[in-house]
Amino acid sequence: MIKFLNTIPVLASSDLARDVAWYEEKTGFQNVADQKGYAIMQRENMEFHLQLHHGTEDDPVMAGVMRIQVQGILPLFEEFVLRGTIGQDKLRMRTDWGTNEFGFYDLNNNAIFIMEDVG
């Protein structure tokens, strides 16, 4: 029997030290691993990884998308406004697809969306 446990997004980074520092400051995710060219970013039970890419033809930096689902989005939204990650105008309440959400881009143009289902 197969049991799916979770998925772990891996986002591209062109400068791992810079990007780890940015995520720690702007999102509260912390690097919990010391690996060459790779970072494991965690906050509570959430995890994603950053992988260094050199921006060459053989190793391009390609932007990705990550959606983080939460319950109780308003305190996190206010935290991210205070961190300077997003502006006060970024929260979208009761979207047509049944979510409250906000989003931003990291320094590599990866799109990060924080959302909660509102049914």
Structure description:
This is Glyoxalase/bleomycin resistance/extradiol dioxygenase family protein. Keywords: Dioxygenase, Oxidoreductase. InterPro entries: Glyas_Bleomycin-R_OHBP_Dase. With 119 residues, this protein is α/β, with parallel strands linked by helices. It contains 2 helices and 7 strands, in the order βαββββαββ. The strands form 2 sheets. Strands 1-4-3-2 form a 4-stranded mixed sheet, with helices on one face. It is globular, with a radius of gyration of 15 Å. The mean pLDDT is 95.
What's this entry about, in short?
The protein has 2 helices and 7 strands.
Please give the order of strands in the largest beta sheet.
1-4-3-2
CATH level-3 fold name: 2,3-Dihydroxybiphenyl 1,2-Dioxygenase, domain 1
- Helicity level, as a percent range? 10-25%
Largest sheet: number of strands, sense, barrel closure: 4 strands, mixed
Total beta strands: 7
- Beta-strand percentage? 25-35%
Poorly predicted sequence stretches spanning 5 or more consecutive residues: none
State the distance separating the first and last CA atoms. Answer: 31 Å
Helical/strand content category: alpha/beta
Give the class-level CATH name.
Alpha Beta
GO molecular function: dioxygenase activity
InterPro entries: Glyas_Bleomycin-R_OHBP_Dase (IPR029068)
Protein name: Glyoxalase/bleomycin resistance/extradiol dioxygenase family protein
Organism: Neolewinella aurantiaca
